[in-house]
From TrEMBL:
Coiled coil: none annotated. This is NADPH:quinone reductase. Signal peptide: none annotated. It comes from Actinomycetospora flava. Pfam families: ADH_N (PF08240), ADH_zinc_N (PF00107). PANTHER family: QUINONE OXIDOREDUCTASE. Residues 12-324 form the Enoyl reductase (ER) domain. Keywords: NADP. InterPro entries: ADH-like_C (IPR013149), ADH-like_N (IPR013154), ER (IPR020843), GroES-like_sf (IPR011032), NAD(P)-bd_dom_sf (IPR036291), Zinc-ADH_QOR/CCCR (IPR051603).
């Protein structure tokens, strides 16, 4: 099969290549998926550069997320899964066979059924962004049902996680406020279903949001240091600020203000989420996709041979989703 590979970390143009490699066979508990689309996330290029880990032991086919069709199963997996359309998440976590290839082999639980009428683009967009969004909304909570009638603040509503946080929260019956940095991004957030969209670069952000709601029950936060004053202005007893991304400098945490407000901060990194909580987030994502509540992001498509350009586009902050088509 053809696959994008790197054997050491570094800049995309220096370490990524497309090669013919042996097609893997699924082992016990695994499925093999013929990949029709491979979604690229920031975590993929950060891992490839070495920011989040070491060089691969042998080789690494990158990308955690993807979509495709199960074409073979290993021992202990229902043979009826052959031919099933699936979306993948965390495919390259502890596994050299990520989704930037014609085939990927993963544990069967990491290949989630995709509804028959859902487009491939949706399947390639889910994975890390949607499951992260689901976990941010569920962490320290009482389940998705508890979001009904509550108010959710989503920072960066045009980003991949922000997009799915809006759609999942609306699917659960919450009111959603989101912040963006441009009118182009505001249109994306409105299309996702946000009730109020505010450009954080304009004056009076807090006042505009407070005209809509006096507090947020849940904050899905992409930049804690930059947004902490806004988050605190909208926090109250029971507010949870779920932070899923880091910044170059660690923010100073105002413990007393958080204590007085009875507000908590929860940090979310999908790779370390407890198994039962991860299953809950995946299940909610799958249910919402099946109900037609989730939509693909705007897609920029590259061929497998364009892997370097695709990675560089994501590094440079491409809006929407970059998808590699093997």
């Amino acid at each position: 099969m053809k696959a994008a590979i790197y054997r050491r970390t570094g800049p995309a143009a220096d370490v990524l290549s497309v090669e013919d490699v042996e097609t893997p066979e699924p082992g016990p508990g695994q499925v093999r998926v013929r990949i029709t689309g491979s979604g690229i996330n920031p975590t993929d290029w950060k891992t490839r550069t070495g920011l989040t880990g070491q060089d691969p032991a042998t080789f690494q086919i990158p990308h955690q997320d993807g979509v495709g069709v199960v074409d073979a199963v290993g021992e202990g997996v229902d043979a009826g899964r052959v031919g099933e359309r699936v979306w993948l998440y965390l495919a390259a976590f502890g596994n050299p066979y990520g989704t930037a290839a014609e085939y990927s082999v993963v544990h069967a639980d990491l290949a989630v059924p995709l509804p028959g009428d859902a487009p491939d683009d949706l399947g390639a967009c889910l994975g890390v962004p949607a499951v992260t969004a689901a976990h941010c909304l569920l962490v320290r909570g009482e389940g998705r049902e508890a979001l009904r009638g509550r108010t959710v603040l989503v920072a960066g509503g045009a980003g991949a996680v922000g997009h799915y946080a809006i759609e999942l929260a609306k699917h659960a019956g919450a009111r959603v406020v989101t912040t963006v940095s441009s009118e182009e991004k505001a249109e994306l957030a409105r299309a996702a279903g946000a009730d109020l969209v505010v450009n954080y670069r304009e004056p009076g952000v807090v006042e505009r949001i407070q005209e809509f709601t006096d507090r947020a029950d849940r904050v899905v936060e992409v930049a804690l240091g930059a947004n902490l004053e806004l988050d605190l202005a909208l926090s109250g007893a029971g507010t949870v600020i779920a932070v899923y991304a880091n910044e170059p400098d660690d923010p100073v945490i105002p413990t007393r203000r958080l204590m007085v407000a009875n507000t908590s901060i929860s940090y979310v990194l999908l790779y370390g989420v407890p198994a039962d909580e991860l299953r809950a987030a995946v299940a909610w994502t799958g249910d919402a996709a099946g109900a037609g509540a989730l939509s693909p992001l705007p897609v920029t498509r590259y061929g497998l041979d364009e892997i370097v350009a695709a990675h560089e586009a994501v590094e440079q902050g491409a809006i929407g989703k970059v998808i590699l088509t093997p």
